[in-house]
From TrEMBL, chain A:
Heme b binds at H112. Its main location: mitochondrion. CDD domains: SQR_TypeC_CybS. This is Succinate dehydrogenase [ubiquinone] cytochrome b small subunit.
TrEMBL record, chain B:
It is found in: Membrane. Its cofactor is heme. GO terms for cellular component: membrane; mitochondrion. It holds the Pfam family Sdh_cyt. GO terms for molecular function: electron transfer activity; metal ion binding. Keywords: Heme, Iron, Membrane, Metal-binding, Transmembrane, Transmembrane helix. It comes from Linnemannia elongata AG-77. Its main location: membrane. The heme is bound between the two transmembrane subunits. It comes from the Eukaryota. This is Cytochrome b560 subunit of succinate dehydrogenase. Coiled coil: none annotated. The chain crosses the membrane at residues 65-83, 143-163.
């Protein structure tokens, strides 16, 4: 079973040769890529969902190109940020207000929130549901909102009493 | 009409219909659009409503929910502070603290618990996720043990924070 190298933007991981053979055996010009077909098996045929000219139109979601910045590096960064919040919150609680702790909180917490919101957008507001433009609009809106939050934290730390002091004062008011 | 040998060789169709279509492309265009619209209206099988409540997915959903809630509150505060002066609703730490001071004690304790519990749950469950990322406690038993530990710790710490 010779596997030919397909220069396709889709991520090709070698699926079962039997599935590939079955898909290739079916008619080549009018092969149907159904909703529930294995993505990798379909990709191995060399055709994308956009090639389907039969009853089912192209699926709105396109498998994204493999990119470590969005893959394992993103995962590493997310965990690193989460781990760093443990000593940060501990220091803030034990030591009280300090410019370094407050500045770090004002950066790390908004970015952590952004990553969480981004995951929720990916899961619930994906292109298949809200359209490609809708997903892009929501993603960029989220980025703008995070930038605003970062700016607000910076302003508060710079001109007001700082995040740790605020929590302390408001909590014991 | 199909009794004669000649008639039987002919395909029976009502008068006026086209059996063979000469314009294939328009027929395909006509049939595709409403099908796509119908696919968008397809019913979904029940999923969350029928799956047995379990600590695994309840806590996972609650982790996301509390994360979203606490983050939304944080963003609202930070963005409100940044843009408040623009719309005349500017506030600072002093005004916020003075408003809180006017609230009765019982309401304050209740509100502090309601604010603290999502935060503590998300914190401890986040640590549970980080422990999983080191491949520890990745068994059914481990998941349940850490799950109960998180539930206990988060409740106790939230009560403690509410009473400060």
């Amino acid at each position: 079973m010779a596997l030919r190298l397909v220069a396709s933007p889709l991520a090709i991981s070698r699926s079962s040769p039997r599935i590939v053979a079955a898909l290739r055996a079916s008619s080549s010009t009018h092969s149907r890529v159904y909703f529930h077909a294995s993505r990798n098996a379909a990709a191995a045929t060399g055709k994308t969902a956009a090639d389907v000219t039969e009853v089912y139109k192209a699926v709105a979601y396109r498998q994204p190109t493999p990119n470590q910045l969005h893959g394992s590096y993103h995962w590493d960064f997310e965990r690193l940020l989460s781990v760093s919040m443990i000593p940060l919150f501990a220091a803030s609680a034990m030591q009280g207000a300090h410019p370094i702790t407050d500045s770090l909180l004002g950066v790390v917490v908004p970015i952590h929130c952004h990553i969480g919101f981004d995951a929720m957008v990916t899961d619930y507001l994906h292109p298949g549901k809200v359209g490609v433009f809708g997903n892009k609009a929501i993603t960029w809106t989220l980025r703008g909102v995070t930038v605003l939050a970062l700016y607000g934290c910076y302003q508060f730390n710079a001109t007001d009493i700082g995040l740790t002091e605020l929590v302390k004062k408001a909590w014991t008011a | 009409m199909a009794k004669t040998a000649f008639a039987k060789t002919r395909f029976m169709a009502p008068v006026g219909t086209r059996i063979l279509s000469t314009s294939q492309s328009t027929q395909k265009e006509v049939t595709v659009a409403p099908l796509i619209e119908q696919r968008k209206n397809r019913p979904l099988s029940p999923h969350l409503t029928i799956y047995q409540p379990q600590i695994t997915w309840y806590m996972s959903g609650f982790h996301r929910f509390t994360g979203g809630a606490v983050a939304a509150g944080f963003y609202a505060g930070a963005i409100g502070y940044a843009l408040g002066p623009m719309v005349g609703l500017g506030f600072d730490a002093a005004s916020v603290t003075s408003v809180i001071a006017t609230v009765p004690v019982a309401a304050k304790v209740a509100a502090k618990f309601i604010i603290a519990y999502p935060f503590t749950f998300h914190c401890f469950n986040g640590i549970r996720h980080l422990i999983w990322d080191t491949t520890r406690f990745m068994t059914i038993k481990g998941v349940y043990q850490t799950g109960y530990a998180v539930l206990g710790l988060s409740t106790v710490s939230a009560v403690a924070l509410a009473l400060i």
